[in-house]
Amino acid sequence: MRLENKIESLYHRYWLNNYAAPNLTLIKGEGEKVWDDRGNEYLDFTSGVATNSIGHCHPNLVAAIGRQAEKIIHASNLFRNETQAKLAEALVERIAPGRLFFCNSGTEASETLLKLSRLFGLKKKGAGANPFKVIVSSNAFHGRTFGGMSATPQPKIQNSFKPLLPNFPVAQFNDSDSFAALIDRDTAAILIEPIQGEGGIHVAKKEFLRDLRTLCTDNGILLLMDEVQSGTGRTGAFLAHEFAGITPDAIGMAKGLGGGFPIGAVWISDAYADLFTPGSHGSTFGGNPLGCAAALAVLQTIEEENLLSRVKKLSAPWMEQLVDLQKRHELIVEIRGRGFLVGLQLNEDPGELRKLLQQAGLLTVAASGNVLRLLPPLTVSEASLRQSILTLDTALTTYGKATAPKP
User: Across the chain, which distance is largest between two alpha carbons, in Å?
Assistant: First the structure.
């Protein structure tokens, strides 16, 4: 039995059907390239869904994980570990004065933000008030735990698991007036993504984020920022909200922070960090020495290789080339995004186009609303960016011919 058939049979027999059945077995990765079990090479513009921030098997990351694994892998938060302390310091220095909580994933980061809003509401609670509402945005995605799903107003995420948690009114993305209209004495926080990833690569306007900051300050509520997908340099800034010149009250991070190793983090400003007290929250694996060593290697690489400037420099002409593709291919309705977090809005489901792209050696990922996501690592080469345009152009031409009306 060939390896692929054996792996396929194991998936068919033992894998839970919560994902669509994968049709590719990846066995090796280097930079922006991966190889399957038949020796085929691909450009990986999924980056593990924005997770392999410095590419596959970056030497710095591999070495850091190896060194740490030889010293201590896990010790729990009953004890201090040096990598966690250093990572907390590094993140505070990059963001603003505050404190860090470490977890394992993006949805856990979202849960921590929601628990912060609840603790804030309990402290704020006054006569007749019930300040536990968290205003969220249309098209938002904040994870798949019950808290995360409740804050994610997408039927495909929520419908199978109702009833969900109450008190998550929905405002319109990029419409600050709709947020203002929902604020009352029962409101604890606004939770927002500066760029919606799974929701379709919708970019928040500077004025919108600044308005939300003002609304939260004026009404004495928290501004919570979900940077799980948009953070760790993907847009050319360390965190995507920075372009608006604001500072939230708390920020959730994950995905690219560990470069492929599972780690999440929540930065909380000093003004609200004391709301968490011993026993109020925790994570067995969160902030373990191995995960923190991986994240430190990612931050070090971003700094040493000047990746934030590099993303800005290389993404600008790449985006122009994508816009040129839009002008020549009717399937593309709009190009959205910033840096290496880009979405192609199509006029129909991207499934067939993704198949053509995979056959041609380019791996992509879909998003809500007929969007094709392109998420190259921050270290992607200029040659690979050019190749992605050529591959897209060919696949779009092939798709257009295949779907053109017959004479």
Answer: 73
- Give the pLDDT confidence score for residue 406 in this predicted structure: 61
- Amino acid at site 110: S
Whether pTM > 0.70 for this model: the answer is yes
Q: Say whether 45 sits in a helix, a strand or coil.
A: coil
Q: Positive or negative, the Cα torsion across 116, 117, 118, 121?
A: positive
Average pLDDT of the segment spanning 60-79? 97
Full DSSP string of 277-320: -TTS---SSTT-HHHHHHHHHHHHHHHHTTHHHHHHHHHHHHHH
Distance CA 248, CA 230 (A): 15
Q: Give residue 234's pLDDT.
A: 98
Radius of gyration of the chain (CA): 22
For 236-245, the pLDDT digits (tens) are 999 999 999 9
Q: Which domains does the chain have, with CATH numbers?
A: 3-54+307-403 (3.90.1150.10), 59-304 (3.40.640.10)
Tens of pLDDT, residues 87-138: 999 999 999 999 999 999 999 999 999 999 999 999 988 766 789 999 999 9
Do 129 and 187 form a contact (C-beta atoms < 8 A)?
no
Taken in order 241, 242, 247, 253, the sign of the CA dihedral is positive
- Could you give the CA distance from residue 124 to residue 132 in angstroms, rounded to a whole number? 9
**CA 380 to CA 201: how far, in whole Å?**
20
d(CA 197, CA 203): 9
